Amino acid sequence: MTDQEATQQETTGQEYFDHLIEQDSRVEPRDWMPEAYRKTLTRQVSQHAHSEIIGMQPEANWITRAPSLKRKAILMAKVQDEAGHGLYLYSAAETLGTPRDVLNQQLLDGKAKYSSIFNYPARTWADIGAIGWLVDGAAICNQVPLCRASYGPYGRAMVRICKEESFHQRQGWEILYELSNGTPEQKQMAQDAVNRFYGPALQMFGPPDADSPHSQQSMDWKIKRFSNDDLRQRFVDMIVPQVEALGLTLPDPDLKWNEDRGHYDYGELDWEEFFAVIKGQGPCNRQRMQRRREAHREGAWVREAAAAYAEKTSQTAASALIGA
Ligand code: BYC
To answer: A single GO CC term, please (predicted)?
Structure first.
């Protein structure tokens, strides 16, 4: 292709891309797309996938300690769902051109981020409730608009993920509800868990809009539909009546209804802590990454066996063709 033809192709591609975005239509893997769009989506979708995989750890630690067989089965199903979410998301990310093992290596090398929330420990059984109610609740609030993301494979993956997240949130709510209506010690355990997870759950929405370098461009491209602060506000408005129904409180003395805005005002979050956590200095960053690297090493034989099987079946298929 001559330089002139390449420029022509790029101009037509850009026009078509702009048209798709303007029409609120979907960009598909084979469509031309600006390199920066491909890059930001690869970043966001792979970070999202890494979050699902790392996010299995705090809960998986509680599978053996769940208080009944039923709770154990439910928690196992939830953790398995999260592995599945990771897989759909890696598949969606791969359609943008970067192979999954490269994305995975970025995580193992500590170059790719995953959600700050998973660097906090799950200390008690009530924390499993708080993770379900607050963390999965925040995830739903953030991810429902992503079902309409302009990139087709990402939006479609999000539809199924959101359905499963709703079940996850319900199971968290139910754990907290039961504890809150149990003995005074159980109620206190539920309150402590909410106290510890409230701030970090609000930080899942990302830094304040003024410190969010990617938001505006991602909204212009209709990857993100709302800003970080808008979604955070929506989440606060949603959980205030829920916490009342639980008979618990949120640990924020500044939380109050603002008649003029039609929203709850809430106190400043600890952004210094947030930025330290995403730089690797949270309470569990080292432990999470160490466990992920171990799991990757322990899984080497599975990857090798799958690759050998794929090779063998493709050879058998090729010999059958030659024989035919
Ligand atoms: N933690 O310009 P910004 C789940 C980074 S899984 C860590 O606002 P953007 C679940 C951000 O990446 C939940 N890093 O970025 C799983 C960027 O850094 P880089 C995961 C964060 O992308 C298992 C920088 O800060 N959900 O629910 O426009 C069990 C500047 O930020 C965080 C998703 O991944 C954070 N909280 O907006 C239970 C949802 N926030 O890349 C539950 C999809 C920001 O420049 N992702 N950063 O180095 C998104 O919606 C967006 O990527 C974000 C950030 C709202 C998170």
So the answer is: cytosol
- Give 208 Cα–ligand 1 centroid separation in angstroms: 12
135 pocket-lining for ligand 1 (C-beta < 6 Å): yes
Ligand 1 and 205: CB distance under 6 A: yes
Distance of CA 33 to CAs 15, 36, 93, 130, 150, Å? 10, 8, 14, 40, 11
In whole angstroms, what is the distance from residue 236 CA to residue 75 CA? 26
> Considering only the top CATH level, what class is 34-279?
mainly alpha
Q: pTM higher than 0.85, yes or no?
A: yes
Where does residue 306 rank: exposed (0-12), middle (13-18), buried (19+ CB within 10 A)?
A: exposed
The Cα–Cα gap between 236 and 248 comes to: 15
**Residue extents of the structural domains in the chain:** 34-279, 283-323
Q: Please tell me if the CB atom of residue 227 comes closer than 6 angstroms to any atom of ligand 1.
A: no
Query: Mean pLDDT throughout 7-18?
Result: 87
Q: What does the pLDDT look like over 201-221, one tens digit per residue?
A: 999 999 999 999 999 999 999
Closest ligand 1 atom to residue 224 Cα is: 50
